[in-house]
Structure formats: C-alpha cells, structure tokens
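> run fold MoaD/ThiS family protein
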Amino acid sequence: MKVLIPSALRSYTERADAEASGDTLAEALADLDRHYPGIRFRMIDEQQRIRPHIRFFVDGVQARDLAQPLSAAGELVIVQALSGG
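> ok
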C-alpha cells in the first residue's frame, strides 16, 4: 500500500511516500520499520498505543486502532500535529 509520510518523519524515509505491506495498520507500521528503522517508535509508544500527536487515515477515514484492516491497493496517510505559538 502507498504510505504518505509527513515532513517531520522524512528524515527516516528521505521521501514523501513509501510502500508498506500488511493486513492491519500494526503490520504495515512494522513493515515500514523494517525498511526505515526507528520510524515506528515515533508513531507508536512503549504501550503499543498511537502517540497523541499522530493520526492515521486509511483511504480517507481516520484509523484509531492498530488492528484496523488494510487493503494492498489502499492508501495510508500519516499526519503529525504541529505545535507552537
């Protein structure tokens, strides 16, 4: 599946998009981490929860669970909230 990478995580991928495979969001993120070591930890915490500043959208719908099913032809968009004042 196509994965759109936010600019804050492009230091791992060196590009705006990547490919990942897996039947669930968790599997796709693990696959991304195999190709780009360390990227998963920036999105998923030690308790295996999505970090508060990260949002995942699967085919345009927000995924709130790592068990979210994926399709190989789908698209995963990773959004990272920015803060500041």
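Residues 71 and 79 are 19 Å apart (CA to CA).
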